[in-house]
Specification:
By secondary structure, the chain is an all-alpha fold. The chain contains 3 helices and no strands.
Length: 126
């Protein structure tokens, strides 16, 4: 029993020092250059959390906004990227067709012939 409570206290201490809320609490001091308050690194002891007593109001309903943002990130971003790539591919095809219809006015308008590895010249790097 003593070891488990000690482990719990250690977990809480490391969580308060290394946790996100601890960093947010110390960030203004770090950015402004003020010296932290003496004992700011000390772990704050909190009383044990107890459930609401009889007659207490119900806790507020959880917000749906984080869920919507998560679903947009999971499904919406890949869908938008797919649409963007499809539009870019269609534009590239149209540009190639216009270049072919123009009669090869630009340099290298025709496709390159297949590459024959036996006719390639290689140089040895030092």
């Amino acid at each position: 029993m003593v070891a488990s409570s000690t482990a719990g206290q250690l977990r809480n201490a490391l969580g308060s020092i290394l946790g996100l809320f601890g960093l947010v609490r110390w960030m203004p001091d770090l950015l402004t250059g003020r010296r932290p308050i003496v004992g700011a690194l000390r772990v704050r002891q909190r009383p044990p959390v107890q459930g609401p007593g009889p007659g207490a109001p119900a806790p507020p309903k959880a917000s749906e906004k984080p869920l919507v943002i998560f679903l947009l990130a999971i499904f919406g971003v890949p869908y938008a990227m797919h649409k963007l790539l499809r539009v870019l591919a269609e534009q590239q095809q149209q540009q190639q067709q216009q270049a072919q219809l123009a009669g090869g006015a630009g340099a290298g308008a025709g496709p390159l012939p297949p590459l024959d590895p036996s006719q390639l010249t290689f140089a040895r790097a030092l």
